[in-house]
Amino acid sequence: MADLAAEKWVMPDADDSGMNTYLARTCASAGFDQRIAHLTGESHVGTPLYRELVLAWRVDSPVAPLVPELCAMIADRYLTLVDKAPFYLSWWHEGGAGFALP
C-alpha cells in the first residue's frame, strides 16, 4: 500500500458497505492519508476492487446444514449483479471471473 501514497484516488460515493472507510484506514495503517481526487457514482472507473466475503458459523448451529445452499444463493445473487453492470460484465468475461472466484 505504501507504494500508492503519492497517487490520487478515484473512489465511489460513500455507501453503507464501509469500503471507503476500510480503504482510508488501510492507507492510514500504511502511513499515509488517501488523496481522493474524485468521487463518482459510476461503477465503471476501472478494475473492480477485490473484496472478500467471509461467512462463519458454528458447526452445531441450526444454520450449519443450510450453508451450502446459502453459499449457492449468495453466488447466484452476485452473478445477477454482474449481469446488470455492463462494464463489470465485460471485465468478468475478460478474465475477472478468474480473479474474483476462489
Model description:
With 102 residues, the chain is of the alpha+beta class. The protein folds into 2 domains: 1-41, no CATH class; 50-102, no CATH class. Helix content is 43%, strand content 11%. The chain contains 3 helices and 2 strands. β1 (8-12), α1 and β2 form a beta-alpha-beta unit. It is globular and about 50 Å long.
Mean pLDDT: 83
Contiguous helical run count:
3
Rg from Cα: 17 Å
Distance N to C terminus: 23 Å
Shape label: globular
State the low-pLDDT regions, or none.
none
Give the strand tally. 2
Structural class: alpha+beta
Q: How many domain regions?
A: 2
Q: Element order, helices and strands?
A: EHEHH
Largest sheet: 2 strands, parallel
Strand order of the largest sheet: 1-2
Which range best describes the helical content: under 10%, 10-25%, 25-40%, 40-55%, 55-70% or over 70%? 40-55%
Strand coverage percent: 5-15%
List the helices and strands and how they pair.
Layout: E1 8-12, H1 19-29, E2 35-40, H2 67-84, H3 86-100
Parallel strand pairs: 1-2
Key words describing this protein structure:
single chain; 102 residues; alpha+beta; 2 domains; two-stranded parallel ribbon
